[in-house]
Design brief:
The complex is a heterodimer.
Chain A (H helix, E strand, L loop, with lengths): L4 E4 L4 H7 L4 E6 L4 H16 L4 E6 L4 H6 L7 E6 L2 E7 L4 H7 L5
Parallel strand pairs in A: 1-3, 2-3
Antiparallel strand pairs in A: 2-4, 4-5
Chain B lengths: L3 E7 L3 H12 L5 E3 L19 E2 L9 E2 H14 L3 E3 L5 E3 L5 E5 L2 E10 L3 E3 L7 H4 L4 E2 L2 H4 L7 E5 L3 H10 L5 E5 L9 H9 L3 E4 L2 E7 L6 E6 L5 E4 L3 E4 L3 E3 L30 E3 L11 H23 L1
Helix pairs in contact in B: 1-2, 1-7, 5-6
Classes of the chains: A alpha/beta, B alpha/beta.
Chain lengths: ~110, ~325
């Protein structure tokens, strides 16, 4: 049974990322971002279909420090963390097929 | 998959979704091919997904955010039974009935088609543009304005959307330059007055961006004065582009007549194209009004035109 999407903030982020034994895809998003809304259902699907990667989200309104730490200038921004370190950054909304292709190496 | 539907709607902005609401309520069980997520080109929900406050859509006295408005449109269509697929149409065949529409390998068939693919933002077409997109260069003020708090940024354009974006961005940025190639704005009077009165907004008249600078991250632009051709640098950390739109009509080039500017031709006071049973609405066929509310209105026309046309066929 695959997991759902975890909400992370400044308090929970470091622990969740460093303790994960699989890569974690973090979706930096906000309520006011249209393209973020478009990819939300796609990430839900990937979360329930893919066992090899965890999916988490960070609301940039609530956690601006995390957005700053990872130099985010545009959302949606997806960062894949591997062994606690950012390994890949994807910017902008993409269709599911294209997104799976981009994160294929981590699945 | 090969069931013959009453109507397929291609596109899901205000026009397509209004057509979906009306067609669904007329028991036509519309299939909406809504497009694929993208931050740069056309996308489900249309151009309003990339905009901020919509203040001129009737029924929202305090205004509403573009993405929220479009989410509402979609929920309303879903409520009456419209079906959605989140894919992009890759090919159409309008030469025989029923009409055929493909999304990659998948084929859908319908007695009528409503084309509402809208328009997408033009880019400047400068080298560097693609690399710096998302790294200081943006086509979506609502998505990215937040990240430019207390920085100096610029907006390129002079129409309503450029002025609206520039005004919106002054909420975050310490300074917003509006770069416009002419000596007056095309934007409506209320937007112009708001821009002129905004102390954080400075309009750079008769200027064009000829170069975007930055390694990995945008650091500035080179402007050229359109009269003197003098060039000068402008240091900004963000650049937002709102220079206009082009209609998404490439798919239909071989099937429907396009105007010289690429927009679809419809019969006067109607959504009919020259192919009986194929209708068009919204920005894809409107190079003049281009408003959410006119797009919605024309979407309603297209659904009613399609419904009546189907009735005539069955008589």
């Amino acid at each position: 049974m695959a997991e759902g999407i975890t909400d992370l903030d400044m308090n929970s982020f470091d622990e969740a990322i460093s303790s994960s034994d699989t890569p974690v895809l973090v979706d930096f998003w906000a309520e006011w971002c249209g393209p973020c809304k478009m990819i939300a259902p796609i990430l839900e699907e990937i979360a329930s279909e893919e066992e090899g990667i965890k999916i988490a989200k960070v609301n940039v309104d609530d956690s601006p420090d995390l957005a700053r730490r990872y130099e985010i200038m545009s959302i949606p921004a997806l960062i894949v963390f591997e062994n606690g370190e950012p390994a890949k950054k994807l910017i902008g909304a993409k269709p599911k097929g294209a997104l799976l292709e981009e994160i294929g190496e981590f699945l | 998959m090969n069931d013959i539907r009453d109507v397929i709607i291609i596109g899901s902005g205000p026009a397509g979704l209004t057509a979906a609401i009306y067609a669904a309520r007329a028991n036509m069980a519309p299939l909406v091919v809504e497009g694929e997520p993208s931050s740069t080109s056309d996308q489900p929900g249309g151009q309003l997904m990339l905009t901020t406050d919509v203040e001129n859509f009737p029924g929202f006295p305090e205004g509403i955010m573009g993405p929220e408005l479009m989410t509402n449109f979609r929920s309303q269509a879903t409520r009456f039974g419209a079906e959605f697929i989140t894919k992009k149409v890759t090919r159409v065949d309008f030469t025989q009935r029923p009409f055929q529409v493909w999304t990659g390998e998948d084929r859908y068939v319908a007695r009528t088609v409503i084309v509402s693919t809208g328009a997408q933002s033009l880019m400047l077409g400068l080298p560097n543009e693609e690399q710096l997109l998302g790294h200081g260069l943006s086509t979506c003020a609502t998505c990215d304005g937040f990240f430019f708090r207390d920085q100096d940024i610029a907006v390129v354009g002079g129409g309503d959307s450029a002025v609206e974006e520039a005004t919106f961005l002054t909420r975050f940025a310490s300074k917003v330059y509006l770069i416009h190639r002419r000596d007056q704005l095309r934007a409506s009077k209320i937007m112009r007055d708001r821009a002129f009165a905004n102390p954080k907004l400075e309009i750079l008249w008769n200027c064009q961006v000829v170069e975007i600078q930055g390694e990995g991250k945008l650091s500035g632009v080179i402007l050229e004065d359109s009269i003197t051709h003098e060039q000068k640098p402008l240091a900004v950390q963000g650049l937002f582009i709102a220079i206009g739109h082009r209609p998404n009509t490439d798919l239909f080039r071989d099937h429907l007549t396009l105007k010289d500017n690429g927009y679809l031709v419809t019969e006067p006071d109607s959504s009919k194209t020259e192919i009986a049973g194929v209708f068009a609405c919204g920005d894809v066929q409107d190079d003049y009004y281009r408003q959410a509310v006119t797009a919605a209105g024309s979407g309603c026309m297209a659904a009613i035109d399609a419904e009546r046309w189907l009735e005539e066929q069955s008589d």
